[in-house]
Predict the structure.
Amino acid sequence: MGLILEVEGLHVDLPLPAGRLQAVRNVRFEVSQGETLSLVGESGCGKSLTALALMDLLPPRAIRRAGKLVFEGRDLSGAAEETMAHLRGNRMAMIFQEPMTSLNPCYTIGNQLVEAYLQHRRASKREARERAVFLLEKVGITAAGSRLKQFPHQLSGGLRQRIMIAMGLMCGPSLIIADEPTTALDVTIQAQILALLADLQREFQMGLILITHDLGVVARVAHRLCVMYCGQVVETGTTKEVFARPLHPYTQGLLRCIPVPGRLEPGSELGSIPGLVPTPIGVLKGCTFRNRCPKSRPECVVENPHLREIGPNRALRCLDTLASAA
Amino acid sequence: MPDLVLELINLTKTYQVSAGAFRGQRDLRAVNGITLSLEKGEVLGLVGESGCGKTTVAKLVLALETPTSGHIRLQGRPLAECDSKEIARQVQPVFQDPYASLNPRKSVGSIISLPLRALKVGNQASWSKKVGEIMEVVGLTPRLRHNYPNQLSGGQRQRVAVARALIMRPQLVLCDEPTSALDVSVQAQILNLLMRLRRELGLTYLFISHNLAVVEHLATRVAVMYLGRLVEEAPTRELFRNPRHPYTQALLASVLTPEPGLGLPDTHLGIAYPNPIDPPSGCTFHPRCPRAAEACREQAPVSRREGGRLVECHFPEEL
Amino acid sequence: MSSYISSSSPGETGLGLEVVFPSPRQIMRRAMLRHKGFLIGLAVIIVVTLLTILAPVLAPHDPYAQDLGRRLVPPVWQEKGTWDHPLGTDNLGRDYLSRLIYGSRVSLLIGLSVMLIAGLIGTTLGLLAGYFGGKIDMFVSFLITVRLALPAVLVAVAVVSLIGGSMRIVILVLGLLVWDRFAVVIRASTQQIRPLDYVAAATSAGCSTFRILAQEILPNLMNNLIVVATLEVARAILLEAALSFLGMGVQPPTPSWGLMISEGKEFMFFYPYLITIPGVALFLLLLGFNLLGDGIRDVTAPEGR
């Protein structure tokens, strides 16, 4: 199981009138072949920007810095746009949240799938179309041939997302980045799409970075996860480990917030995390979670906690030594 | 005789939509004969996915649309006979999108006091006092009343929406996916707020959502909609323990709880997603139903009510 | 299933840093002060407005006073020019600078009045069409189509030639003709705002339709409305100049820039300043309004969320 992606020291800054917003701070993670890594967090934590940073698709004003950004053995931290353009859609593909707007309404499905392929491969239109049909069938779309002639608006959200997945696979990438791929879909379709992604990932031995806010999705689909808060990774580990023993107070808080049928007394109070997510602008000293943390100590105000390895595949960013020593 | 806050009797709403260029108009039955009632103090969870018609039900109850047929009764009085101001006193909404539900050009204080001003209740001084009070009740610092929506977070905006809904102490609060667009931690705060307010102020909620876990936590009774029809209705605990309709079973199975190791459920639903303009024959769920038989394709099932539960299926799960 | 919304608090960093997010008005004010086109346009209009208001003080001579002994005196920068008449005199010996200054009154007065009348008509029609839809929308759209099919200048010319020309008639005729852009823009904007939840919430709160149109929808249209209004002032000024040029607008001896160009055209080849001076003035005023309108549109354009 080779390493497809290694990221270290990833920073993304957004200059705002009020100051420099440090949207992504010192993010570190790695993805292997055939593995699903989930970047989990609420909005504003920087997970989507991290994904865009990997593909170098950040908004023009954003500034990206990376200590290490190694993809398939190549360091991309200083890569030119040409190099990135060659990789996007080819070796690494991205699937977005809104299937309604990710597909161009003016072109047929077939047109868009074929274009995705011919962009990076010297092949005839017929070969491209054959591959499109092959992949549409792989993603579970029947009568694939006739679907090629349809336009996006003629299809439901679930079908469109399957087509997005097929489009991502056209050139056989080694890494797929899926940003909230099922958030805009119905609940009964969600499980199907996630199962599809998992199957395809196993079959083609791709790495999958799954970005989501839904801990339920993470639990059922991901092998490993990185919990992000305010631009930083605060906890990493295998899914089983983190859910069985969440160590960071934020992770613990998140898990308490989620209503699980049958677990809580109906009508009782849900656990919640008091306060609001701070805006990381200016000089940031101390732990960014301290104002909302039940375990907050005086040291948390002054010391910046580092992401420390506390076991194989387990890391934690917290000064609460009792928890990390346990 | 129970105190019925809301009654829907055979409610239907049909829209005319164009079926494409040069193909004229087709009927879209968004709501197709719904019968429901809501007692005082209850929380009725109305669940369903896109195209099921729950948003249309919300619009009909708020009198933003008029039914094509059927009746709605608020506190026993037919909705059609009430004028907009009477309705405003009885029912208030909390909408899904905290960005779109507040007028960006008005201050928070002005937004919250809108029902008071529109219904001409009290005067300037009493408005100010009531706004301050309700803001504290929903957990907002009263100083925020001079701010504008763009200066508030999503959770704060939703609290403003709740404050606006409650300032007139309505009989019924209609929540249309009030937390779906919020972060998990904020969602928990707002849900706790809604539960606390229900206890303290004796409110009745019609809670529309697609999130079954939230509904299970909040609702006393659940009604499941599919393509404009009510396919199952039961007290919450019973519905979640013993769902009878195959669609309800699939919905429940689809809830992804944060429990690793359980993998992904197979809902056995297939990918034939229905088009509301052209619904399937007989039982509209039959193309996706794992238990579908010949009868299901030919004949629409009849609703059966027994022991406080309702189910509309030819082959419902036995209890 | 809507897109995900940030829970970030704009007001606190929670880290001891108070980040104050400005109100919509403050955001706009800051953007305005940075926009060059807006500032230039505003400057031009302020200057012209001052000219208009202070005309009696600033004009060196009476714009109607003829002096046949001093006809066609060229402006001061040509030989034979004199500081007594910095912009020269016209063929009846009237001081050109004074006529130019008083002419700005005509342009601005007509421009603003027409904009107000057309704005009232167009906004009302647009609001009703956008809000109610259905038959009302069909009727208003029909009116707009008919109006667009008629060339404004020709209709104005026809009407004026039937009833005669004067400032009042020009204002009325133009006002009743140029409301189309208002109606189209306001209708489209109203249609966008109509389905938003805060309108539904206002209806549920018991607001009357009038209150919703005036208090909930109109304030959110103001940005578009102001942009269209400034551009329509420019259009009205140009139309008035065209009508006066054709002799179908303001009647002599009233100083109007269009009329001045018309009266000067006979002497165009020997005394080009007779048409270039009012021409440039017109150009600058129109440019000013256009820059202002564009500036307002840029400044109030929604940038993300």
